[in-house]
Specification:
about 575 residues; alpha/beta; 6-stranded antiparallel beta sheet; 25 helices; 19 strands; about 40% helix; globular
C-alpha cells in the first residue's frame, strides 16, 4: 500500500497517513518500502523481468543502484537514468511513484496490465494519490459527492466502469500502461504501453510453442515466492498446477466449496458442472496437498458489506465476499497463491466471444439486462440519469477509439474489438477483486496469465487460431495437451463458483428489507423500494439471466444494492442531482 501528496502550486494540507513517510519539502510519499537519494524518493511494487539488462545499463551510465532496495531502488535508478521515460524501460508489471524535489515533479506509473490500481485527485498542479481509494477520498480537496455521471457509472456500467473514472467526480483512476506527470506547469497523462493488433503469420504449432513458453516463463518467475495454487479443476488453474508438478515443485492446492451446493446446484448456460469432482481428480493425479474451504450461506451474506469496503466500490456481491473469506482461510497457512485469473481475457474464453447474439450486441456484452438495472431506480432518478443512453454513449466512444484492420473479415474485426474492450472494461473488475479481496487478508495473489507479453501475443493471433478446433481457448489447450489429463484438458469453461443455496438469497433479502424500511438509508434516495421488494418477492434463482458478467443474477443484484448503500453511507457521500 502506498499514498502521497505533491504540491506543485499553492499550499495544500497533507493527506492523512498510516504508513512510514518520507518528506521532501511539501511533497510526501508513504509506503512500506521507499528509496531516496536525498533529491528524489521512489516507490516501486512488482518485478522487472529485464533486471539484468537494466543493471548493465545502470553500470555503464554510472548510476547507483542498490539491489537490496528491491523495486523501489530499481525505480529510482531508472528515473535517474531515463527521466520521465523510465516506465518504458522497465519490462513487467511494475507500479511506481517518484517525487523529484529538484525538478518539483511527480510521476505516477500504473503497471502495464492494470493489475494494481492507482487513484488520484488534483487541484491545479497539486495531487494526492494512493492505491487505496479511501485514502484519496480523505484528502482535503475531494468533494464527497456523487453526481449524475457517478450514478450512471454505478447503475449503467457497474461494477465495471469507464477507464480513468470512479463514481466520485473528484477522484480519478490512472489507466493501465499510463504515467501521470505533474510539475509546476500542470498535469499530463502519458501512455507508455498498450496492446495493439500486430501482424501474425504464426501457424497453430508455432503459436502453441510460443504460448507454452510465455506461460511457463511467467509462472517460473513467481516460484521463488513458493506459492500455493487456487485450484478449480478447470483448464487455467490446472495448467499452473501441472507446470509446478513438472518442475518438481510441491503443489499445495486450495479450493472453495459452498455448503449444500451438492443439493441445490443446478447447471445453466454459464455453469455446466460443479468443480468438486475435477478438483478431486486433479489433486489425486498431482499428488497435491488438498485444502477445501467450505463457506455457508449466512457467512457469505454477512460478509457482503465488508467485501464492498475492501474493494472500495460496490462490486460483485458474494462473488467478492466468497473470495475474501476463501483468502482469509488460505492466509492462515500461505503467503502467496497462484490464480488462473485473466486467461479468459487473454484467450477469449468468455461466452460473448462464442455466442453470436452477445458478440453482435450494440453495447457491452457483459452488461446483461438493462431492464433489470432500470427497474430498481425511482422514476425521478431514472428520468434524470437515462442509464441506457449513458451506457450506449460510453460503448460507442470506446468503439470509435479502436483501429480496424483492413485486411481481415468483418467478423475478425468484431472479435478483435470485443477482445480489446474486454481488456479495458471487464478485466479490471476481476483484477481489482483478486487484488483487494486477497491483499486485504494478507495474501499475495499471483496471476501468470496477466503477462503483457502473453496478452500482446495472443491478441494478435487470428481468431481461428485462438479458437482452434472451434473450442474456446483451443490454442491454450493445444499448448498444454501433453501436460494435462484429457478430463481436465477438455473440460468446458466454468466460472468461479457461487452458492446456489436458497438461504443465501433469503439472508440477502432480509438485509435489504431492513435498509428499505429505514428512510435515512441513502440508497432510498435513488432506488424504488416497491420495485426492489417486488424483485425480492420472486424466487431469486441462481440460474436467472445475469445483469452483469456470467454469475450476477437476482441475488447478486440485491447484494450490489446493499454495497451501493454502504458505499454512500460509510464514506459520507452526498448525492448531488
Amino acid at each position: 500500500m502506498f499514498a502521497g501528496s505533491f504540491f506543485g502550486r499553492g499550499d495544500m494540507s497533507a493527506i492523512e497517513k498510516g504508513l512510514p513517510v518520507t518528506r521532501l519539502g511539501r511533497h510526501e510519499l508513504c509506503a512500506h518500502c521507499l528509496a531516496s537519494d536525498g533529491g528524489a524518493m521512489a516507490y516501486g511494487f512488482g518485478e522487472a523481468r529485464n533486471l539484468s539488462r537494466l543493471e548493465g545499463e545502470f553500470k555503464r551510465a554510472g548510476v547507483y543502484h542498490d539491489r537490496r532496495g528491491g523495486a523501489s531502488a530499481l525505480v529510482l535508478a531508472a528515473y535517474r537514468l531515463w527521466g520521465e521515460n523510465f516506465p518504458r524501460m522497465i519490462e513487467g508489471l511494475v507500479t511506481a511513484a517518484v517525487i523529484d524535489l529538484d525538478a518539483s515533479r511527480l510521476i505516477l506509473v500504473r503497471d502495464r496490465m492494470g493489475a494494481y490500481p492507482i487513484y488520484y485527485a488534483r487541484r491545479a498542479s497539486c495531487v494526492v494519490f494512493s492505491d487505496d481509494f479511501k485514502r484519496v477520498l480523505d484528502s482535503p480537496f475531494v468533494t464527497r459527492e456523487i453526481d449524475k455521471s457517478g450514478l450512471c457509472e454505478l447503475f449503467a456500467l457497474g461494477p465495471s466502469g469507464t477507464p480513468g473514472l470512479t463514481p466520485i467526480k473528484d477522484v480519478l483512476a490512472l489507466k493501465p500502461g499510463c504515467a501521470l506527470i505533474a510539475d509546476y506547469f500542470g498535469l499530463k497523462e502519458k501512455e507508455y504501453f498498450n496492446i495493439y493488433s500486430a501482424p501474425s503469420s504464426d501457424d497453430e504449432n508455432t503459436a502453441a510453442e510460443k504460448i507454452r513458453f510465455l506461460v511457463e516463463d511467467a509462472l517460473i518467475r513467481t516460484l521463488p515466492e513458493n506459492p500455493a495454487v487456487m485450484l478449480s479443476g478447470g483448464l487455467d488453474s490446472s495448467i499452473l498446477a501441472y507446470i509446478m508438478k513438472k518442475r518438481g515443485n510441491e503443489v499445495r492446492a486450495w479450493s472453495v466449496e459452498y455448503e449444500h451446493n451438492d443439493v441445490y446446484y443446478r447447471p445453466n448456460d454459464y455453469q455446466h458442472d460443479p468443480d468438486g469432482s475435477y478438483v478431486k481428480f486433479a489433486c489425486a493425479d498431482l499428488n497435491a496437498q488438498k485444502h477445501i474451504v467450505r463457506i455457508g450461506p449466512e457467512q457469505l451474506a454477512n460478509a457482503i458489506v465488508e467485501a464492498g469496503a475492501a474493494r472500495g466500490f460496490p462490486g460483485m456481491g458474494d462473488v467478492d465476499s466468497s473470495l475474501m473469506l476463501f483468502a482469509r482461510d488460505i492466509a492462515n497457512e500461505e503467503k502467496s497463491i497462484l490464480s488462473g485469473e485473466c486467461a479468459d481475457e487473454v484467450f477469449g474464453g468468455y461466452p460473448w466471444f462464442h455466442d453470436e447474439r452477445l458478440l453482435s450486441m450494440d453495447g457491452f456484452p457483459w452488461s446483461g439486462s438493462m431492464e433489470l438495472r432500470e427497474s430498481v431506480l425511482n422514476k425521478k432518478v431514472l428520468d434524470l440519469l437515462n442509464i441506457r443512453q449513458y451506457e450506449a454513449a460510453r460503448y460507442h466512444e470506446a468503439v470509435a477509439a479502436k483501429r480496424r484492420l483492413r485486411d481481415v473479415s468483418e467478423r475478425e474485426n468484431r472479435l478483435r474489438l470485443t477482445h480489446a474492450l474486454c481488456f479495458e472494461w471487464f478485466m479490471p473488475v476481476l483484477q481489482l477483486r483478486a487484488d483487494k479481496m486477497c491483499s486485504g487478508e494478507g495474501l499475495k495473489v499471483l496471476t501468470p496469465f496477466c503477462d503483457d507479453r502473453l496478452a500482446q501475443y495472443a491478441y494478435s493471433l487470428p481468431w481461428e487460431i485462438k479458437n482452434l478446433g472451434g473450442q474456446p481457448k483451443g490454442i491454450l489447450r493445444k499448448a498444454f495437451a501433453d501436460l494435462l489429463p484429457e478430463k481436465i484438458l477438455n473440460r468446458r469453461k466454468s466460472p468461479y463458483p457461487k452458492t446456489h443455496h436458497p438461504m443465501y438469497a433469503k439472508a440477502i433479502c432480509e438485509m435489504m428489507a431492513a435498509v428499505l424500511n429505514d428512510a435515512s438509508e441513502p440508497v432510498n434516495e435513488i432506488c424504488d423500494a416497491e420495485s426492489i421488494r417486488k424483485i425480492m418477492s420472486c424466487p431469486l434463482e441462481a440460474n436467472d439471466k445475469p445483469w452483469f458478467g456470467q454469475l450476477m443474477t437476482g441475488a447478486q443484484l440485491i447484494a450490489y444494492l446493499l454495497q451501493v448503500n454502504s458505499f454512500l453511507k460509510d464514506n459520507n457521500i452526498a448525492v448531488a442531482l
